[in-house]
Amino acid sequence: RIFPGKVMDRSQQFRRFYEVIAGDGRIGPVHISVYMALLHLWERQDHVNPIHIFSRNLMPIAKISGIATYYRTMKELNKYGYIRYISTYDRIIGSLVYIQELNVSIDKKEV
Question: CA–CA separation, 103 vs 71, rounded Å?
């Protein structure tokens, strides 16, 4: 489910994220770092969905340097249901990310 605007703040989403990932063996340090960077950008954009992101802005915040790592992690967070990621390849608009409302029913298949 996607937030319809300013429904949940970053601290609530932060707590929920850690509750959900506790039982999700697919999530590693890079996923956590990228997700925290997304929450930071979401906050800077007034908690409104979607947020517009550029890899060049998110990667330093997440402390990742490889573009392949960035794309792989974004696609996995999307696939696992933590975000909805729409890569636009548009240098003006950027990619779109919807911060999903998290619940414990995310399908947590081991990879």
Answer: 24
Longest dimension (CA), the chain: 38
Three-class HEC string of the chain: CECCCCCCCHHHHHHHHHHHHCCCCCCCHHHHHHHHHHHHHHHHCCCCCCEEECHHHHHHHHCCCCHHHHHHHHHHHHHCCCEEEECCCCCCCCEEEEEECCCCCCCCCCC
d(CA 56, CA 79): 22
> Which is nearest to 34 in space by CA: 42, 46, 25, 44?
42
Q: What is the pLDDT along the chain (111 residues), one digit of tens a residue?
A: 444 444 556 678 888 999 999 999 999 999 999 999 999 999 999 888 999 999 999 999 999 999 999 999 999 999 999 999 999 988 899 999 999 988 765 555 554
> Which residue has 């999307």 as its token pair?
78
pLDDT at 14: 83
